[in-house]
Amino acid sequence: MSAIVAIALTATLLVAPAAERTASAPPPRAVSAPPPAATATDARSRRCPPAPPEPAHPISRREWISGVAITEYYPVPERWSAGLPVHTPGLTGRHAVDWLYSARGVSMEGDGIDSRGHQVHISSLGDEGWVNPAGHPTHPLCPGIWSAGPPYWRAGGWRNGHGAVTYPLRGGKWSNGAPRRKLSYRGVSFSPGPSLPLRYYHSIATDPRLIPRGSRVLIPAYRAVNGGWFVAQDTGGAIKARHIDVYRPPPDSPSDQGRDLRDQRVYVIPPG
Predict the structure, then answer these.
(1) Were 232 and a residue from 37, 127, 166, 206 both cysteine, which residue would form a disulfide, CB within 3.0 to 4.6 Å?
(2) Nearest to 222 by CA among 206, 245, 250, 242
(3) Is 183 among the domain residues?
(4) Do 138 and 130 meet the contact criterion of CB atoms below 8 Å apart?
(5) Distance between CA atoms of 262 and 67, rounded to whole angstroms?
(6) Among 192, 208, 234, where does a domain finish?
(7) How confident is the model over 189-242, as pLDDT tens digits?
(8) Do 161 and 224 sit in the same domain of this protein?
């Protein structure tokens, strides 16, 4: 997820994670029906975890740092989606509607790879936020905790007779019953290409308050993958303090959630 989208969405949704991509979130997966909605009471009963301590200053000399969490992220593939292809502002042709607008698609992840292998990204977040499966507005209270349960769909699209989210599937059926009304996405649009010129197993997202942009970072756990060296080129609202997110190719299956390493030791060479 790019810093541009991350900053915009954080401003729009208060304390939202970066483009709502949280580094520890599972990868998107195609679904044929929405999961049960959490209630606002459920959300209020949960407590926001304490924020990681803010780094005193960015690293200014070469040094090893310990206690680092390593996770992975990638552009979400359209091939995992089950929705009917539709036209959308900013892109040519038709694309799976859930890949575009669901919380498991480009609207949440920021970047995606379409069915022809081309990268795209969300370029405008529009005037609305998110709704849960029941169609109720939900907004982040803190990273990972939302006012009315996890987001499911952009605040637009189709609603069934109970007001819950439904969307068309390939083959003519609907994910959650026939629609009774359709709502505007109010300015959501997409663009061809990636949101940032990132490279697989080369680029990482870091907290620039600790690891400045442009730093070279050795992650020993990746020595067998790429020699272990990366460049800090991205940021994210969910990337705080001693947390590094590795940009990687999409896995073959959405069940592959990638590496999730804890208490790692990395070597940082700041720019300049």
Answers:
(1) 206
(2) 245
(3) yes
(4) yes
(5) 7
(6) 192
(7) 999 999 999 999 999 999 999 999 999 999 999 999 999 999 999 998 778 899
(8) no
